[in-house]
Amino acid sequence: MTTADPDRSPDKSEPEIELVSIAVLYEGIINALSDVSLEVGRGRIVALLGANGAGKSTTLKAVSGLLSAERGAVTRGSVLLGGVDSTNQDARRIVRRGYVQVLEGRRCFPHLTVVENLTSGTLGASSWLKSGDTRQDIERVLERFPRLKERRRAYAGLLSGGEQQMLAIGRALMAKPRVLLLDEPSMGLAPKITSEIFDIVRELNEKDGVSVLLAEQNARVALRYAHSAYVLESGRIAASGPAEELRDRDDVKEFYLGLNHASRRSGESLSPAVRLA
Q1: Rg (CA), the chain
Q2: 148-153: which pairs have CB atoms within 8 A and are 24 or more residues apart?
Q3: What domains appear along the chain, each with residue ranges and CATH number?
Q4: What is the pLDDT of residue 7?
Q5: CB neighbours (10 Å) of residue 182?
Q6: What is the pLDDT of residue 14?
Q7: Strand 99-102 vs strand 179-183: parallel, antiparallel, or unpaired?
Q8: pLDDT tens digits for range 220-270
Q9: What CA–CA distances, in Å, run from 147 to 35, 47, 163?
Q10: Is this model's pTM higher than 0.90 or not?
Q11: Mean pLDDT, rounded, for 176-202
Q12: For 55, what's the count of Cα atoms within 13 Å in the CB-facing half-sphere?
């Protein structure tokens, strides 16, 4: 039996993620987020919706510690992970604590095979994770993704977009996350493949207890799978609430579900945010 890593022992009474009025600047001058507060409870799927450039990816990177790689930083507010202040913490430590991000655009290693890509998911992991049997972990991931199992020796660059997205999620699972941060998982995928990816996310949540913060432009799909959601506009939270409630709001239908684009073109914003139930 391995000794538990203290970094991975969360306070079970605290949300997995809590952002408290955070602001983010890039290069000290570019204001990406102004006053963002949100919460991801244990065992929940939370969607972060908004148009391109609204601040979704920046919000995820504020959680995962990847802002510094792009000369960005949280300049105000707090990022709490499992109740611990983790504002601007090193990304490697955040991964070791079980918060793993799947970046927008898959970012697989094209000249490595499926198995080699999965193996890379253990790099930088804590000692307790490395002490496990990587081969068994790979087989468990491949059982979850039958397409990848069939193509385990194929180079990632030769996979379809959907297969690459499965590989990116599978690589994240090799780090045995308790929280997944998914950035635009449906990007460039056909509707059938998108549904397949989201079904996998739901299974991870329901069977494995993985919490999920999901940034997504496809609000129709995201609201079908999420428990709750936040809508970002120009770096601020414009609306929030249970997913079912947001699906029924007329302004969200008009702006994000494609039912009426006239008011969107006029520059009108969403009505004031509703609080999470």
Answers
A1: 18
A2: 148/114, 151/114, 152/113, 152/114, 152/115, 153/113, 153/114, 153/115
A3: 14-265 (3.40.50.300)
A4: 60
A5: 28
A6: 85
A7: parallel
A8: 899 999 999 999 999 999 999 999 999 888 777 666 655 444 444 444 555
A9: 42, 26, 7
A10: no
A11: 92
A12: 27
| Sequence-ordered list of residues with C-beta below 8 angstroms from that of 209, at least 6 positions apart, any chain | 43, 178
- Determine how β-strand 30-40 pairs with β-strand 17-26: antiparallel
Query: Nearest-CA neighbor of 230 among 186, 274, 267?
Result: 274
> Residue 31 corresponds to which tokens in the numbers above?
């204001």
- Written as one letter, the residue type at 167 is L
Write out pLDDT tens, residues 137-160: 899 999 999 999 999 999 999 999
> Strand ranges (DSSP E) for the chain?
17-26, 30-40, 45-49, 72-81, 84-85, 99-102, 179-183, 211-216, 228-233, 236-242
Q: How many helices (H) and strands (E) does the chain have?
A: 12, 10
